[in-house]
Every structure is written in structure tokens, then in C-alpha cells.
Amino acid sequence: MVRSGSRAESSLTGGKQVTKRNNILYSQKLAPYIFVLPFIISFCLFFAYPVYSTVIMSFQEVFPGQVTFVGLDNYKELWNPTFFKAVKNSTIYTVLTLLVLIPVPLVLAVFLNSKKMKAKNFFRSVTFIPALISIVVLGIIFRLMFGGQETALMNQFIGLFGLEKIAWLNSASTSMLVLLVIATFRWIGVNLLYFLAGLQNIPHSLYESAEIDGASTWVKFTRITMPLLKPISIYVLTISIYGGYSMFVESYMLYAGNKSPNDIGLTIVGYLYRTGLEKGELGFGSAVGITLLLLTLAITFIQLKFFGMFKREE
Amino acid sequence: MRKRFTFVLSVVLAFTLVMAGCSGNNNSGSSEAGNGGGAGESAGATELSFWTFNELHQKYFEDMAARWNEKNPDKQIKLKGSTFPFEDSHSKLLVALQSGTGAPDLADIELSKFPNYLKGKPQLASLNDVLEPEFSHYVKSRADIYAKEGQYYGIDYHVGASVIYYNTEILGQAGINPDDIKTWADYEAAGKTVLEKTGKPMTTLEVADQWSFWPQVAQLEGPDDLLKVNGEVNLDSPDIIKVLEYQQSLIKQGIAVAAPGNIHHAEEYYGFMNQGGAASVWMPMWYMGRFIEYMPDLKGKIAIKPMPAWSEGAPRSAGMGGTGTVVTLQSKHQELAKEFLAFAKLSVDGNIQLWKQMGFDPPRTDVWDMPELKEANKFTDYFGDGIFNVLTEVKDEIEGVNIGEKTPEVFDAIDTQIVFRALVNNEDPAAVLKEIAAQLK
Q1: In its keyword annotation, does this UniProt entry include Membrane (chain B) (predicted)?
Q2: Domain for residue B340, yes or no?
Q3: CB contact under 8 A, A132 and B424
Q4: pLDDT tens per residue across span B41-79
């Protein structure tokens, strides 16, 4: 297309110089680069450069008009109980969300994909709508629902079973439960969509031939559905790990700020926000950010290796 | 085939919505609450921008800008105020000052955040030339908290004298006269009576904020506070341990309960208190506004008194909290901004307006006796006349506080660790304070 166009044009004008210019403009070698240029520029501007400058800043003490190199001091300072607590909280949260947000949506997706299921679209929408609710609104509603008063919704609910009121957000285990409930409520529909998309790509013929061979539903699920969903599952797992470790707004909204009793709601990003932005120690905050990056990279790498993603296709 | 296409399309649509949802969050966090301006504009007026986290502060400055324009026809200003959420307003300003661009001319900085802005070379204009002439009739400790190396950088809205609010209805049922409570020991005894006769706690204590703990620490005699005079962490001092032990014993006896919602600014707390949940609460003077706005049913039932003292004759108040308005070095009209700020918050007129419009106890002591402060307003309607008599009574007993580079960290530790662990988890106060003090040193 391109070539014939340029030829037509050059033959029209007939000039040699014009042909040359056209060759550059219509060059097939250059075109792809021009097409990806907007992405490259925005990647460099908004990703590569910030990462680079964060790495540099993590070795500095950054105050207005006073930037000094401090070597590894920021990283040494990370060795403190508050940071460990943040890492612990984020890790527990990530593991728990993985335990809930992979198997449950998977099973629900299989149900929703089944021919016998009625009102599929209705259920699809219902599970997905929570993802559209602003987390700010969600956090405030959950904070009030799980309030410590007898009149709070959840305390009234457990009161029906004769249980004592609980100060939900004041103890580590119950506040983690609340965070988990929020995550489940919000993300189950999204993960379900991923799995549903994966399920619809599995050819029907496989199931039909399995039925002819007399396979039970369970066998079909474990031998056909599960293995063929592997790529999607790994994708969901990867983004869920990252999502878990980068959780911040949920806890920020739940505690109406970055402060929770005994730091039970403090996450790694929360700690970054506290040190870098609230206290203005951008150098130290950068060190926290880089540590988070390395941590998630390492975990993702191990996980991908474990699932054999670096091996060539058999 | 069509079905699959519809499905893909719906997924794409759904994700667009998710993305829209995400960006929505960010916006809702930082949207401007008002554009301000409009106050006495005229051609050739100099535009001054002002950032704050409290809409009332913005309204106050807009009103003062109109007054300024009336008096200074040759130096007209156009105030452009913006109100952001508390945390956003502080981090936005900090980043703007750090990056050297984008800061407003004037900004509000809350006391517990202020030291963050004094790190390195402060990017704020020194206000010594406007402040120093006023010191003879000014609560100087309210300026000292915004100073570094002899330079003053902020002007406060109020003294923030800590007082105690008694629910006279509950105390009446228990047969207690609040004026008989002179010391914290009296207070404890009265609390026992209230608990026995009415079954209600005497007070609530904050377990995730500093407003119950800090006033009691700050009113201690002597120059030390949460920080020592030299800026070192003072949390493990025996006096401070005693304060926490006192609070813990109130909780153990049932005389005090942890504030519903953990803090005195929580919706749960307002509801609890509004229904007569506890007989008293000690908070700074600026807390009056919360009573009027969030606890309307207590109108006419609240008496404001000086706080009990640790021993007879010891100080009964401390200047608590505060917000300093600053002029940034990035401002192109620093001199004008300073003059206007002094007009709004340092002048006699300004200080009268601070009381009239916002119910703040103004930092200028010479206005406290003026007739303007005795006029009826929404505060006297609610709390009765003579609010200022309490203040004049404790005038010489208002203890200053020490603010230093460690202050934000100390408050973080109080809000997230100290009071919660001692008052909710019942850990040993001395052990908690010593552990935290060791961490922060």
C-alpha cells in the first residue's frame, strides 16, 4: 500500500528530490517506530525517568534546598519495627486475598459459564458492579458498618446470634477480616471476568469428546478446565500479588487517615506515604518504594518460575 | 461469533468504567471545595492565592480580604482561596515547596505538621518584622511553636487554651458542682460519684489521637513537654508516665471509657456525647465549634471550666494545637502577603473577628477584655455568657508547648501506639512509653 502510493506520487511529480523525501516519509523501516513513539515517550517520561530518579533519591536525604548523598543510610533505617509491621500486614493481606480471590471467582465463573445456569447476565452484572464503586465511598461505608458501637450494622447483625459487640477496627485479626471483605466484595467480579473470558476460549469439542469417553464433571473440571485456564490463572495471580502489596487506599479510608491503632492497618505503601509525603522525607520514602518494587519483583519472578513460565512451550 | 463480540465489548466497557472509577477517586480527594475570590475585586488588584484544609478558614480570609480592600484602595488584593482535605493540603504544599514550583502565596499549616516544613532550609518567609512589635500583648508561646533559629514563620488563629466541658445535667443528677473540682484527684472522686449515681462514665479518652493525652502532659509545670526544651524526646519522663497511669486507672475504674470511634472527632463519638453519654470531656477551646455543629441537643447544658490541675495551684491550661498561616518564599508578592496576613490575624480588628466569626480565643491578650468579645453570638447562645471569663481566669496559667523536628513522629507514636496500647490493650504505661521513647531517640 505504502509503497505503491509513494510510487504513484513520485511518478506524478517526477522530481528526484521529492522521491527521496517520500522514501523517508513512507519508509517501512521507520513507520513502526513512529507508531510506537507516543508510547515510548510517555513510558520514558512517566515511568523510566521517575524510576531512575527514585533510585537516585533513595540514596539521598532530600530536603528543600538541601540535598545530600547519604549512601545506604535510608536502607539501613528501614530496619525498624514499623516497617516490619507494614511488610507483615501487606504480606498477610496478599496471601489471604490470593486464597479467596483465585478459587472463589474460578468456581463462580464455571457456574456462570454452565449452560444450566439461569439469569447469567444478571449475576455477571451483580458480581461486577462493586468494582465500579469508588473505593473512597466503599471505605467510608465499611467503616460505619463495622463501627465499634452496638448500633453499628455488623454489631447488630452478630447481636442477633447473641454475640457481644466487637470493636472490629481495633484488633489486628478483625480489621484484617474487614479489609479482606472489602477486597472480596470489590474484586471478585473482576477476577470472575478474567476467568470467564478464559473459559469461553476453551473449545466445546474437548468437553464433548470427554463426555463420550464417560468423564464425570469433576474429571472434566480438573483435566480440561483447570489446565487450559492456566495462562489466565497465572495472569490473575500475578496482578493479585501486585495488587495485594500495593494496597493502600482501602486501609486509608477505613481508618479515615493513615493512622490505625497499633499500626494494624499500616501497609508498605502506607508507610511510604507516611514517610515520603506526610513527613517530607522523600529520600527515605524512595527507599521504601524501591524495596517494595524489589519485593514484588522477586515474588513474581519466583512464582512465574514455579509455574514454568520461562520454559519454552512443549 | 456475535455473542463473543458482545462479551468482549462489555468487558472493554466495564474496564473503561473501572478506570474512570479509579481516576474519580483521585479527583474526589483533591477537588477544590471552592474557588474563593470574588472578595472586593477590582481592576489592578494583586492576586494572592491561599491554601487551607478548613473551609471556615477560607471564608474568614475572604471576608478579611474584603475588609482590607475597603481600607487600602491603593493596594487592592484579590484572594483566591482553595480548601483541600487535611492530608492532601499538607502533602501538596510540602511537595510544591520541595520542588520549588506551584506553591501558593499564603497557606495554612497545622501545628503537628509544621516541623516538616522547617526541615532543611525553610521555604517560608520570615515574619519577624510583623510579629515582633506585637509581642508585648501577644501570647508569645503561640509564635514560638512556629519558629526555627530565631525566625518566626507562622501566625496562629488562636491560643487553643485547653478547657474542660462539663455536662451540667449529668453532674446535677449526681449532685456535683463543677466548681468544686480543683485537681485531677477531685476529678477522679467526682467521677466515682457520677458513675455510682448515674451509671455513666465521667469522661471519654481518645485512644487514637493526642487531644486527651497532650493537654494533661502540657499543663505539667516546668518547661518540658512531650519534647524537652532542647528538642529531645521526653516520653519516658516520670511525670508523663504518671499522666498515662492516671488515664489507665480512670479506664480501669470505669470512670472513663475509650471514646467511641476512638477519637473525639468521630461521628460515633458525636452521637454518643449528644445523647448524654459521658459527663465531661477536656478539649481545647476550639472544640466549641464541634459542640454547636454536631451535638445540638446539649445546648444550654454545657459549662466551660478551666481544666483541673495536677496539684492545687498548678497550671490549669495549655495552648493546644493550632494552625499557622505562612507566606511562602515562592510568592511574588511577599511583602503584600505579609501585610495582609498581619491585618487578618495580628491586628486588633483581626483578632476580634477571629472570635466573632470562628469562636477562636484570639492570641492577642489585649482584646480579651474588649466589649466586642462580650457580645452575644452563636457561641454564647450555646454555652452561656462569660466564656471569656474562663480564659481571663487562666490567662497566666497557659503552659506553652515544645515543638521540634521530632514532633510529627511523637504524635504518630501517640496516635497509633501509646494511648491505644495503654488504654485499650491495658499494657503497662511505663513499659510502653519507655519502649517508644527508645525507638524515637
Answers
A1: yes
A2: yes
A3: no
A4: 455 789 999 999 988 899 999 999 999 999 999 999 999
